[in-house]
Design brief:
Helix content is about 45%, strand content about 20%. The chain has about 425 residues and is of the alpha+beta class.
Length: about 425
């Protein structure tokens, strides 16, 4: 998608992300996703084989969300997750390293939810229990301890399930992310992902042991939490330590190292979701300029392993031809370029025509004696754009095929065009 700032390019990607995961990486409340002056917002998509699965979400300022699948209202919103999976990358993802633990928890939760859609329900239940327990801590009731005991037992059960799922997901991600980090950094950096739970847990993912650990700490911290008015132990206090060479990337990593780290995490997420679901998720790239961002260029090159060949344009061959539709006296050359690039597929014919007008205007201004015409064929099913760029010399004796192509190549290299 091409356009000026504020025209809705990121908005479209956010809509895809919301339909895929019921979550937005930018907003935590639905009212921030609704246009000003409107009471609701609606999203709808057709996905799957022959686009036969209809997904729909209605966001309302009052009354909460309404989620539908194939026209049927879903009581459990998590039932919408599954047909559509995505992994997104944008400049905002750099906060994954730099910002507070909440951002890293949110990233890990999105990964787990793609693997286990029921995880979203666990998060919602845990959030409700925390809010209700915090309200109870602030109230002076005669039976408050009895009510808190009931809340603590529920929080221990739900919290342990969250702990275990996050821990398992991180154990699966680390052996995938570490090789990517080594590859992106040229073999100079070793990446470690350490799960730092908000509960002191003993044992190795033993559910009963972890439940008892969380329950004991909730009861032990109750007097202090009564003074603070909030819960100080549990999954809501989790963090993920991102280490490069054994040192925290947040404090000691350079900006370039942090970008490589985020790319490694995204590639590992893409690989994990692909391996477990059997289908590569959609890759959403927001405002990515591969030629200006060395790390992104490396990521695009690395994506070949997923059969998502996003390499830059490559010249297949030069050939001369005589077209029956052109005057025989015209000296013509064709530069046939095959693009196997999902980003360039978005240009389609209209963008090629705009570029043709722009470049021919430049040629006239510089006094060169030829024009360009483009003829492109887009085969989206196999991800290929075949484009023939013909050089038509106005005065064939002054401009040969070779001289025209040489002059164009020098100019394109000078202005940095692909």
């Amino acid at each position: 998608m091409l356009g000026n700032n504020g025209e809705g390019k990121s908005n479209l990607l956010e809509a895809v992300e919301l339909l895929a995961s019921l979550r937005s990486h930018r907003c935590s409340q639905d009212r921030d996703l609704i246009q000003r002056g409107e009471t609701s917002s609606r999203l709808k998509a057709w996905v799957g084989e022959e686009a036969g699965d209809e997904l729909a979400i209605e966001l309302r300022r009052q009354g909460g969300r309404r989620v539908q699948r194939n026209g049927k209202l879903l009581e459990r919103h998590a039932d919408l997750i599954g047909p559509l999976r995505c992994v997104g990358f944008s400049a905002l993802d750099l906060s994954l390293v730099r910002d507070e633990p909440a951002g890293r928890r949110d990233w890990l939760d999105r990964v787990v939810q793609q693997l286990e859609p029921v995880y979203g329900e666990l998060l919602s239940r845990h959030g409700r229990l925390l809010r209700q327990r915090s309200q109870l801590l602030k109230r002076q009731l005669s039976n408050r301890d009895e009510l808190l005991d009931a809340f603590d037992h529920q929080l221990a059960v739900i919290g342990t399930r969250l702990h275990r799922r996050r821990h398992r997901a991180l154990k699966r991600l680390e052996p995938l992310a570490a090789p990517w980090q080594e590859r992106l950094s040229g073999g100079r950096e070793q990446l470690q992902l350490l799960y730092q739970p908000g509960t002191q847990l003993n044992g190795d993912e033993d559910e009963q042991v972890w439940q008892q650990c969380l329950l004991d700490q909730l009861q032990e911290q109750r007097p202090q939490e009564a003074r603070l008015g909030y819960c100080s132990v549990g999954p809501q206090r989790d963090d993920v330590a991102l280490l490069l060479g054994g040192e925290p990337a947040r404090r000691l990593g350079s900006a370039g190292q942090q970008r490589c780290l985020v790319l490694a995490l995204k590639l590992a997420e893409l690989e994990l979701v692909t391996s477990l679901s059997g289908v590569a998720p959609l890759l959403l790239l927001d405002d990515v300029k591969p030629r200006r961002n060395f790390s992104v260029s490396r990521m695009i090159d690395a994506l070949r392993i997923f059969d998502l060949d996003m390499a830059s344009s490559t010249i297949q061959k030069f050939r001369s031809f005589a077209s029956p539709t052109l005057q025989p006296s015209l000296d013509c050359a064709v530069r046939q370029v095959s693009f196997v690039d999902p980003l360039l597929l978005l240009f389609k014919r209209k963008a090629w025509e705009c570029w043709q007008r722009e470049i021919n205007t430049t040629i006239n201004r510089m006094g060169w004696g030829y024009q360009l015409t483009f003829a492109s064929r887009c085969n989206a099913s196999v991800g290929v754009v075949d484009t023939e760029v013909a050089v038509h010399a106005n005065q064939p004796r002054l401009y040969s095929t070779t001289s025209a192509l040489t002059q164009m190549r020098q100019w394109l290299d000078h202005v940095g065009q692909p």
